Hints:
Structural class of chain B: alpha+beta
Strand content of chain B: 25-35%
Oligomer: heterodimer
Distance between the termini of chain B: 41 Å
Helix content of chain B: 10-25%
CATH superfamily of the largest domain in chain A: MetI-like
Low-confidence stretches of chain A: none
Order of helices and strands of chain A: HHEEHHHHHHHHHHHH
Amino acid sequence: xxxxxxxxxxxxxxxxxxxxxxxxxxxxxxxxxxxxxxxxxxxxxxxxxxxxxxxxxxxxxxxxxxxxxxxxxxxxxxxxxxxxxxxxxxxxxxxxxxxxxxxxxxxxxxxxxxxxxxxxxxxxxxxxxxxxxxxxxxxxxxxxxxxxxxxxxxxxxxxxxxxxxxxxxxxxxxxxxxxxxxxxxxxxxxxxxxxxxxxxxxxxxxxxxxxxxxxxxxxxxxxxxxxxxxxxxxxxxxxxxxxxxxxxxxxxxxxxxxxxxxxxxxxxxxxxxxxxxxxxxxxxxxxxxxxxxxxxxxxxxxxxx
Amino acid sequence: xxxxxxxxxxxxxxxxxxxxxxxxxxxxxxxxxxxxxxxxxxxxxxxxxxxxxxxxxxxxxxxxxxxxxxxxxxxxxxxxxxxxxxxxxxxxxxxxxxxxxxxxxxxxxxxxxxxxxxxxxxxxxxxxxxxxxxxxxxxxxxxxxxxxxxxxxxxxxxxxxxxxxxxxxxxxxxxxxxxxxxxxxxxxxxxxxxxxxxxxxxxxxxxxxxxxxxxxxxxxxxxxxxxxxxxxxxxxxxxxxxxxxxxxxxxxxxxxxxxxxxxxxxxxxxxxxxxxxxxxxxxxxxxxxxxxxxxxxxxxxxxxxxxxxxxxxxxxxxxxxxxxxxxxxxxxxxxxxxxxxxxxxxxxxxxxxxxxxxxxxxxxxxxxxxxxxxxxxxxxxx
Lengths: 305, 382
């Protein structure tokens, strides 16, 4: 049997086709760069911290008597439940992310609607304008907001010059600054799925609604809004998930009262050097986030029927 | 009974009765899109209970006219009066009109029932009444038991029925139908035509239908408006459009026709004779024409009004030409002969196959006589 025959026989036996290989590439990528690192984090979460390099114990080791010994420390997870700091951080993260996501939805929906209704020849330009800020470093853009929001910043100067306020507003280092930063940073994630959904909306459906007695406003609530729900859900999840774990925005724009799990994780890793506890916190965060994703996938699958 | 109704229909012609008030009055309507004149000064009256067709090729403006009736487009000039009320400033949602969309435009997030109930809920009808009306509409379009389904779970024909039910649910005085059968396959389309006619007759609602299918327009309509480049080429009953088209374009658009450019030779009160270049015998028409002797007009004869034979026809006073069989198309129920006349012109002659093996006696390259009755031919100016 020559080599090519041999290979094709094996290919047939494994039921492999060109398509399988094409699909295999992204799967391999996900396996190596997402699943494997996650498993490492998962493993770390069961280790015990120690003062060494690396700063954690191995789970599996040979005991002196030659037996294989596996030690799982559940202490990290227990600790997360004992210390109220973590629960507060989780709750506060979810709360901040929810508020920021709702605000972004309120901002993005009219914008996406306007974009979708704009003449076709302007639409690609409008999409470009939405993506444009991404060409600048995220960090620089967040720093720019410090310049805008701080007490002697542009916003206060402008408002004082207008005469709207008599003394500068304290916005920087408050929740409000975090919301502004999040809405600003994640707006495209909210906007683009909404736009993609609203743009392919069939105009004749709105005409049919008008024909059946709907004013434009009624048609919007009865037809446009329900049909844009997949876009709303996609946009909200795309924003909510990274927003929950956000670290840069709360550290730079938030104050001492802004408690978020991303900041807590950072402190555990880099200040306390407690890698196992930080890993456990990360695993719990993931579990919290998996729920909405699963829900989204189920609604998507239902919508596709 | 449909037969009785069609009998009635022949004598029912409100457009010929000057005392009848039109239900829809379109007055000098014009519309321009990006410097292209889509509707060019159209005036038209439509009467209550009519099944009126707007027929024409794509881009002739028929859909734009329908959308202006529905209120989705605003005319640049002219006005539309429906049931005595000027529609100029009435938005679509306040017009006493419903429309069935070409794409059906069923709401994908609502079930069949909810789709049909949509307009009724909008009118704040009582819940029990809505339920009864929905059931009634589902029965009308023979979709009982499909109420809970979503539009995506329906076939094309079923969607079409839901769209019809939804547009009729509010009991509109006027229903606009934009290519209602366009998306169905041929067989279903033919069946649905008759159902549409039955529904229209039973409900007595005025229908205005847009179609590019001349057979459809001929079948369903009380009157047909043939549109051409934003204007009305002819408005008449299907029979009049077919038998007495007022232009070459209308004649060619509706059915097949053999056309000759001919010079008017004599005009009498009940007939006219013409001379066609290259043909010895004159051609006569059964009606007089309003033109000067020597003028060039168009003569048209429908293929089914022509006869073909190998021996000279016996009847005198008929039109007769000679030629050679060029091609034969056997279609089962009929055969079409393409005959090359002695002057080189090709004509189509249709032969109904009343017996089996009908072509036996006429074959390719046979010398044949093509004849037709004096009143079979029509004269047209354009």
